[in-house]
Amino acid sequence: MQISDSEKCIMDVLWKSSPQTAKSIIANLDKSLNWQDKTVKTLINRLLKKEAIGFQKEGREYLYFPLLEEEVYIEQASESFLKRVFNGKVSSFVAAFAKQEKLSNEDIAELKALLGDLDAEDGSKK
């Protein structure tokens, strides 16, 4: 499921706390976005059509909630990014950061630990 950057701002609000009314979503958005109410409502409608969010009617208000889990979105977006930019190669992704010196010693230690865990899991499956 493709979610635009603008739509993700709405999802972030709902992943943090839901259900919420449109008015509440607007109030909880980053103020620097400076979006009109109509813009937010358009984004909500797009997310409803994509079935990324759902709603329930309570009196005269609609309460919106995420149908797409944040973890699932992150996995899909990460995979899509890797395929588009790095031809699906994680090593190319990490190398790009290493060349730009964007990896701290802490990042490198975390990557080594993660690789160690993956290697241990792979060994236990054999």
UniProtKB/TrEMBL annotation:
GO molecular function: DNA binding
UniProt key word DNA-binding: yes
UniProtKB keywords: DNA-binding, Transcription, Transcription regulation
Top-rank taxon, per record: Bacteria
InterPro entries: BlaI_family, WH-like_DNA-bd_sf, WH_DNA-bd_sf
GO BP: negative regulation of DNA-templated transcription
Family the UniProt entry places it in: Belongs to the BlaI transcriptional regulatory family.
Protein name: BlaI/MecI/CopY family transcriptional regulator
